[in-house]
Amino acid sequence: MPPLVPNTGRSYNPVVTLNGWTLPWRMNNGVKEFHLVAEPVVREMAPGFKAHLWGYNGQSPGPTIEVVEGDRVRIFVTNKLPEHTSIHWHGQRLPSGMDGVAGLTQPAIQPGKTFVYEFVARRPGTFMYHPHADEMTQMAMGMMGFWVTHPKAKHPLIDDVNRDFCFLLNAYDIDPGSYTPKIMTMLDFNLWSWNSRIFPGIDSLNVRLNDKVRIRIGNLTMTNHPIHLHGHEFLVTGTDGGPTPKSTRWYEVTTDVAVGQMRQIEFLADEEGDWAFHCHKSHHTMNAMGHNVPTLIGVDHRGIAKKINSLIPDYMVMGERGMADMTEMEMPIPDNTAPMMTGEGPFGSVEMGGMFSVLKVRRDQKPGDYSNPGWFKHPEGTVAHEYTGPLAEPARFKSEGGQSMPRAQKPLAPTEVKVRKPSSGHDNH
Ligand SMILES: [Cu+2]
Fold it and tell me: Rounded distance, CA 361 to CA 24, Å?
């Protein structure tokens, strides 16, 4: 959705939430009022793959809340879930009783009830919101949202930017062919998402050449994500605690966003093209996959595959030449399952999934136009291509040996192994 330009309250430069939206408000005697509804939602995580999640106001994650430093904010929270909930305003300065920790600072909000939170957005920066009641279940089901507090005046540590994007890192464990996340999973998730969307279902970040760009990222998964941008260097200009002092900033192309953290990165988009933007953990740029699969590179199993095929016609050998055959066209998958690695680019399959998108830098992108400009038209002679001309013998590493701990001079005595075959039945070990 294009940015929500404020038409009441104090003005600010709005953010764009990837595959999301900003929650409208109403002004009531100088108080900015929002209404969040916690409820079950259906999220299309990628084209053709729907997940049954919990979220706010029809979506997971919930809508982004945008306010201005110094705003008095009142948020009504209605619970339409089958169990109680609460909302914690992650990172905010507020009265203890507004912090949203069920049992500790307030009673939980029972199904069907509405609670109200009220506080002043005291410091500018990047924040999140999420339940603090049956947290494990409710966050595994997708309950979370983004919050941006804009500075009320020119701030010495907050630069003006042309485009300001935000998204949450989240993760789900949904078995191929099913709809509802497994909430007991602790680490081995199979869907690594940005705003509950997975590549190729994640919006591209479309900017104009020489735009100053800010991207705000919050991590509500259970592991860290080294977020990597191609073609540009960025500065980390803000963390959970607000804008970083300028003397602490250095250029990077990857920044780690740990669990529960927020990071703001900023850069000048001064290189035209289609630039990959993704988590650098290679398993996080894959979709639904099993993790207990042996490596079969180099194994010839044509014979066995033929035999299995007579029993299971859809059976396909995985990975004897690597995993690139696992693209959507080659292997049948259950209904309502995202292909493991996919995304059709101008030169073929991108072979990615999960936490992957594209920064599109274009000379002719109009200011304020966030629409997708299509694929980059590369200038003549600037694309890697097949070479068929003559080549000299390439240099290769040849010497053998060279180790810090040389082998023993005489061979070691052979190791004796005793194998005992378990007898049938009973509890032999
Ligand atoms: Cu990651």
Answer: 29
Share of the chain above pLDDT 70, in %: 88
* pLDDT for residue 261: 97
Distance 424 CA to ligand 1 centre (A): 46
Sign of the C-alpha dihedral computed for residues 101, 127, 167 and 33 taken in this order: positive
247 Cα to the center of ligand 1, angstroms: 28
How far is ligand 1, taken at its centre, from the CA of residue 198, in Å? Answer: 12
- Output the CA 384–ligand 1 centroid distance in Å: 28
CB atoms within 10 A of CB 254: 12
Instruction: Tell the CATH topology of 168-285+357-362.
Output: Immunoglobulin-like (2.60.40)
Tell me the whole-structure pTM to 2 decimals: 0.86
Q: Token pair for residue 391?
A: 């080549």
Distance 258 CA to ligand 1 centre (A): 10
Q: Are 87 and 77 in contact (CB under 8 A)?
A: yes
Tokens of 268: 């000048």
pLDDT, mean over the chain: 90
Query: Which residues on adjacent β-strands are paired with residue 224?
Result: none
Which residue ranges make up each domain of the chain? 168-285+357-362
Q: State in Å: Cα 350 to ligand 1 middle.
A: 18
| CA 246 / ligand 1 centre spacing (Å) | 27
Residue spans of alpha helices (H) in 89-193: 135-140
Q: How far is the CA of 56 from the centre of ligand 1 (A)?
A: 24
Element (H, E) at 167: strand 163-172
| Rounded Cα–Cα distance for residues 102 and 98 (Å) | 10
Structure tokens at 409: 């001079």
* Distance, CA of 215 to CA of 245 (rounded, Å): 18
Q: How far apart are CA 429 and CA 427, in angstroms?
A: 6
